[in-house]
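Researcher: Checking consistency across runs. Here is Phosphoribosylformylglycinamidine synthase subunit PurS again:
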Amino acid sequence: MKARVHVMLKNGVLDPQGEAIRHALGSMGFDGVEGVRQGKVIELDLADGTSEEQVAQMCERLLANTVIESYRIEM
């Protein structure tokens, strides 16, 4: 079984990587981009029987910094 965890900075948290990407796109002629939020996707190969609640515990303890990041789990 696989799970994907999408981790993004929370709204209101400064995203310097996203801003660098937005600036670079503008420099390349892509003027229509007004904002970029950069995140990460973590793919987990799980043993049968691993629950979404267990994956959420993994996120809370290691995979996401829940002070500044939010996450979404896809099983």
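Researcher: Does this match what you'd expect to see?
Model: One thing to look at in this run: The radius of gyration is 16 Å.
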